[in-house]
Amino acid sequence: MSHETEAETRLTFRGGPAASAVPVAFFVVWAVVQSGLLGIGDTTGLVVGMLVGLIAGLLLVRGDWKQYADVVFEGMTKRVAATAIVAWLWAGMFANTIQTGGFVDGLVWAASVLDVGAALFPAVTFLLAALLATGIGTGYGTAIAFTALVFPAGVLLGASPVLLFGAILSGAVFGDNLAPVSDTTIVSAVTQDADIGGVVASRFKYAIVAAVLAFVAYLVAGATMAGTPLQGAAGITEAARPLGLTHLLSIGVVIGTAINGRHIVEAVSWGLIVSVVLNLGLGLAPAAGMLVFRAPESAGLAQSVDALPVLGSVVTLVPTAESGVGGSLYSGAAGFFPLIVLVLLIVAGAEVMQRGGGFEAVQSFLLDRVATSVRRAETTMVLGTATVNAAITINTAAEIAIAPYVARLGKKFNINGYRRANILDANTSALGYIFPWGGGVLAGFTAMQGLPAEYEWFTASMLVNPASVWPFVFHGWFLVGVFLLAAWTGYGREYVSDRRSDEVSRV
Question: Which of 266, 283, 290, 292 is the most buried (most CB within 10 A)?
């Protein structure tokens, strides 16, 4: 029987709490088969997989199925999902708008002048992505912007596409883990009773070790996997002009506004406004390149508007079959609609697992049977976050789900709050960009899917299947490795109770 508490609806399943994991487990299997085995990078296909998984879970519920449906709806309205969705939409519009203004053209020009070839491009990309992600505090936004802007420039010069995509995701991991304004940083600190400043300061030593190793790995792999510039690249490089680099000002506005404590929506909105002004003021792109209404030729009002001096610049008369809305603002937002639906359904599946006792069962098993010493306790924190991230592809949501377990286990062994927050955040930040069905990977891949329509030379064969990039997210792997090593050796471990940030080593 299903039963309700005052706080939330609880679900019971035929087969016990483990059966509550059926929707998410079914989706994971579907994602592995579709993307990994069949090589199909279709986000809408993943949506169908999650829908079928939710229906399968429904069949296992004991009692009133309406309560199961209610939990699905409650999961889909979680704020944490809305946060990711908003970041994707704003970042998509911003990236497409400066792309329309020739920013990639400017990057190609700069790479040519500075002699940054295919071998060095992935390592430089990692550093720049890490810088942007740390500044704006959103790895998702960084993955979208860099995949739309920097990725095509690197591919044109001959850099390995899969290595380049991995470098972008690595930069996103670095920023998500270290940025004070990152959602994962804030959640990790708040849930472990630690202050944000102290958490960031205390995790610096782990992040830098992993970043240095990742940078060296990209240098080595870049030299090994570098190809030759694409056919016709010489002509494109010679034709590239630096004027598009003026959009560094647009990016600077986003970073500066975010660092000053403004909400990411406000920061990206200001960057978007500046980019539109630059496009129009410097003649980088016409108004119709950013927004255009393709009205049917037969529409009388459209014919009148088309003749107007200003409003007519964003209205074009076309055959009825070709009518619609277009431009960078439209395509930047619309490209993420399938991913948005997928994320809402995945968070709903995770909510079903939460209400059905699946997460609680895993936590109890680890507490009672595995975490019997400090070393094993910290190891299970790392592995527990990995398990939850495999089930919940939005890393902030995964962090919220596993945070109570990390806090409970850490307090049992008197592990400092900063240490708990660092273990929690490092692994959720990293694995959210490693698993092929992770939100960060799919966000970058979604942005990548729009490139063939943007560039004549970019073909579908240059797209990177999300299932193939996971070995090349070097910073993510090194970060997980650093914390596993720290758990086994005790590096950085503190047993004292939570302290003020100014008492923590700033090394």
Answer: 290
- Two tokens at 365? 């098993």
- Of 132-141, 219-228, 355-364, which one has max mean pLDDT? 219-228
Residues whose CB falls within 8 Å of the CB of residue 236, separated by 6 or more in sequence, listed in order = 108, 156, 457
Distance CA 202, CA 422 (A): 8
Q: Mention every residue, 6+ apart, whose C-beta is less than 8 A from residue 282.
A: 243, 246
Cα–Cα distances in Å, from 6 out to 1, 13, 14, 69, 470? 17, 20, 24, 18, 42
Alpha-carbon span 423 to 477, nearest angstrom: 14
Residue where the block lists tokens 């998410």: 24
What is the C-alpha radius of gyration for the chain, rounded to an integer number of angstroms?
A: 24
Amino acid at residue number 133: A
3 state SS of 296: strand
- Cα distance between residue 448 and residue 143, in whole Å: 10
Judge whether 442 and 435 are in contact, CB under 8 Å.
Answer: no
Taking CA atoms, 237 is separated from 113, 158, 163, in Å, by 10, 12, 22
Local structure of 145: helix, strand or coil: helix
Identity of residue 14: R
Alpha-carbon separation of residue 438 from 27, 126, 270, 449, 480 (angstroms): 12, 19, 28, 16, 16
3-25 pLDDT tens trace: 444 467 889 999 899 899 899 88
- Under 8 Å CB-to-CB from 225, ≥6 apart: which residues? 160, 163
Report the C-alpha gap between 430 and 219 in whole angstroms.
Answer: 20
What's the whole-number mean pLDDT along residues 418-433?
Answer: 87
User: Taking the mean position of all CA atoms in its chain, how far away is CA 78?
Assistant: 18
B/e letters for 158-190, b = 16+ CB within 10 Å, e = fewer, are bbbbbbbbbbbbbbbbbbbbbbbbbbbbbbbbe
pLDDT digits (tens, 9 = 90+) for 330-349: 988 887 888 788 888 888 88
CB 470 within 8 A of CB 436: yes
The phi, psi pair for 120, rounded to 5°, reads -90, -20
Residues 465-507: tens digit of each pLDDT: 888 999 999 999 999 999 899 888 888 887 655 444 443 333 3
CA atoms within a 13 Å half-sphere pointing along the CA-CB vector of 39:
3
Where residue 137 falls (left for φ over 0; alpha for ψ -120 to 50; beta otherwise) is left
How far, in Å, CA of 401 to CA of 324, rounded? 42
